[in-house]
Amino acid sequence: MTASQLKTTLSQPSSIQLLEEMYGTGRAAANAERYLEIAEGFEDTFGHTEFELFSSPGRTEIGGNHTDHNHGKVLAGSVHMDCIAAAAVNGTSRIRIVSKTYRQDYTINLEDLEPAEPYSGTLALLRGILKGMANRGYRLGGFDVYTTSNVPGGAGVSSSASFEMLICTIVDYFFNGYTRDLIAYAKAGQYSENVYWKKSSGLLDQLACAAGGIITIDFSNIENPALKSVDCNFSDLGLDLVIVNTGKSHADLSEEYSSIPNEMKSIARYFGKEVLAEVEEKEVIDHAPQLRSACGDRSLLRAMHFFAENHRVDREVKALEARDKAAFLTEITASGNSSWKWLQNCYVNTTPMEQSITCALALAESYLADIPGSACRVHGGGFAGVIAAFVPKSETAGFCSYMNRVLDNDAAFVMHIRQQGSIHVVF
User: Which of 422, 427, 426 has the alpha carbon at shortest distance from 172?
Assistant: First the structure.
């Protein structure tokens, strides 16, 4: 496709329908403009006239806060915010990626993909993704990419995983027959973060971005996690999911994030196991005195959160499938309380005067106290970034206006759950 062809195609009813499915009612025109911008940017940058289009969404974590890395259960969904790209094979051993959003221009030689300091940033992540795909048997080749993203960086909706899955989709489409092996995608992204960023991440973010829709994942078999689509949308419950950006990035908090899986695993090691999913909850409770002494109080609390959160995911899925709004919101509230009190990922202990998440939660809870059928909780990794609120549709505008005012920024985003995961886009 060329930019001029795309401009014509985007006005067709089938294209408008697809855009509304992906981005939500009323957002088709703005996103059509985004695709046209990357098409024109691609042609201006690379001089090619033919390209393919790709999209990879951000994700929302609904339940299962910090459970995936210890092979637990999660409930998550793909959202309308996404990373999109125009790309074409270039016939070389080099990959050039130009990001309009971040004003970056990187060229990677496929013969040089080994990790190197600094263990951060887009270039390290890219090398790791490509190496991770090669390790899993994927063929690599050179291509050019022009991309843009409206997934907020460092805000807890997985801008990095969105980008990782975009690159995996492009490599798969151009060189590997577009198999859409989502587990392989996710493991390549995890490998990059673990080895090239030195970040102890699980597979939740990548799978939620890649799969599309609302899904539940059981990581007990980590080599082949069990994915299941959940047949419900929040609109079915009369709710809007509102993500509130607290204004503080979590991009520099890798040590805090890594402490959670590491402390949970210290409890598992006490029993001769690798992860908590291999340990019986009753064993942990029965050995509480010894664990407090051997591993520390916070490690025990985080382990208790893990087990309780696994049970909650099961109940959340059951409530959604039964369209039981009250039961679902009860579990969401309990999950948020557990994250705050037991998991303790709402602020950083070393900087107690800076508590963007806890302030946002307190302000949101104050407002929602007078609105029946609502709930809020920390979202994603925590410590900084975003919170999530489930608000009756009739109250959404007022809640968003309030959060924007009390946080003094454009903080609140009404999210659309999209059914399309990381895909090759055909208009």
Answer: 422
What's at 256, amino acid-wise?
E
Which stretches does DSSP call E strand in 52-142? 52-63, 73-89, 94-99, 104-109
Q: What are the start-end ranges of the H helices in 296-382?
A: 297-321, 325-338, 356-368
* pLDDT at residue 252 greater than cutoff 70: no
Q: For residues 281 and 296, give the distance between their C-alpha atoms in angstroms, rounded to a whole number.
A: 17
Phi, psi of 77 (to 5 degrees): -155, 155
Q: Measured between alpha carbons, how far is 167 from 145 in angstroms, rounded to an integer?
A: 9
Would residue 279 be called left, alpha or beta, if left means φ above 0 and alpha means ψ between -120 and 50 degrees? beta
Percent helix, strand and coil across the chain, each rounded to 5?
Answer: 50, 20, 35
The answer to whether 329 touches 296, Cβ cutoff 8 Å, is: no
**pTM, whole model, 2 decimals?**
0.91
Per-residue pLDDT tens digits for 113-153: 999 888 888 999 999 999 999 999 999 999 999 999 999 77
Q: What would you report as the CA-atom Rg of the chain, rounded to the nearest whole angstrom?
A: 21
Q: With beta carbons less than 8 A apart as the criterion, state whether 69 and 201 touch.
A: yes
pLDDT one-digit tens code per residue, 369-411: 999 999 999 998 889 888 999 999 999 999 999 999 999 878 9
